[in-house]
Amino acid sequence: MEKPVPTHPVFQGSLVAPSLSGPQTNLLLAYLHRFDREQTKRAYWNDLTQFFGTDHVDLSLARQATFLHVNEHIAQMERANMKASTIKRRIAAIRGFYDWLVALELIERNPASKQLLRRVRSARQQDRTIFFLTAEQAAALVEAAGEAPGDTGVRDRALVLTLLHCVLRRSEAAAMDVEHIRPLGAHWILEIPQAKGGADQYVKMPEHVVEVIEDTKRHYGIATGALWRSLSNNGRGNRLSPHSIYRIVRRAAERAGLPEIGAHTLRHTGCTLAIEAGASLQQVQTHARHKNIETTMTYVHQRDRLRDSAADYIQLPSSSQPPST
């Protein structure tokens, strides 16, 4: 019989929680411990420091904010022509921070409560404009990625193919390890341990993409750990950051003569090309890991709106015809 593993009370020793009411305590740092994704932490850190105007917020400062301050901050963002989605994320960060303080019983009311804030006008989900590449443009981008200077072309081509076919967010691509690619029955899958929609997700990987990745591993001698690595002199061997992946896609687009795009354009492109080729909404929703089917429907709304528009029925007499006398 195995011996039970000894456990120790977590309320002893160094794990005693510090006071959150002192002026030395930065509540922002304490609040961000709630989140496990680094991208979420960075976004909320930026939102909250922009609202408070400082990166050190103690309880005294937090208590000074009222719904008037929040509404004025919203008005300032609107005057700066910030996107409605950015403003709503900022509000969500502020509201979440104060919900946390209420839960800790450090304050009584949330100054960012929905009932107290001004309305943020935004476009309907189905009216959003989503930029994507045609199949020909996507093929040109893949070719241009493979023509990157130095010894980065093999890596960049494989990266762009993976982003397109697996419709990954750049943070998900940056976190890829060799061990995340594995067979499942007769298919290949990419495990995504931490993603925007939750933990332990996976997507199917086409065999030809897996073959390209295997060639990439052999080319750079990668056997384990991070799949996408820096090849620069300063950071050689380090895992590529999400921003580095953005730059790789942008530079490949420049070489291909395409408009300025980022990695997320490839996610839009993969979803759109799948729908155009006959994939169902449910298939695209599952592959893209959209939480709501309405997000997937955006691609269909845009296609249908442009494919058969009233604009196509508006006809004027040809200017080349002489006026009747």
CATH class of the largest domain: Mainly Alpha
Distance between the termini: 108 Å
The amount of beta strand, in percent, is 5-15%
CATH-defined superfamily of the largest domain: Intergrase catalytic core
* Cα-based radius of gyration, to the nearest Å: 25 Å
Helix content: 40-55%
CATH third-tier fold name of the largest domain = hpI Integrase, Chain A
Describe the largest sheet: 3 strands, antiparallel
Arrangement of strands in the largest sheet: 1-2-3
Number of strands: 3
Q: What structural category arises from helix and sheet content?
A: mainly alpha
Principal-axes geometry comes out as: globular
Number of domains: 2
Low-confidence parts, pLDDT < 50 over ≥5 residues?
7-17
The CATH architecture of the largest domain: Orthogonal Bundle
Summarize the structure.
With 325 residues, the chain is mainly alpha-helical. It contains 13 helices and three strands, in the order ααααααααβββααααα.
Mind explaining what this structure looks like?
The structure is a single chain. This protein is mainly alpha-helical and 325 residues long. The protein has two domains: 20-122, DNA polymerase, domain 1, CATH 1.10.150.130; 135-306, hpI Integrase, Chain A. The protein is built from 13 helices and three strands, in the order ααααααααβββααααα. Helix 2 (38-52) packs across helix 5 (84-103), helix 7 (153-166) packs antiparallel against helix 9 (207-220) and helix 7 (153-166) packs across helix 11 (263-276). The longest helix is centred in the N-terminal third of the chain and has 20 residues, at 84-103.
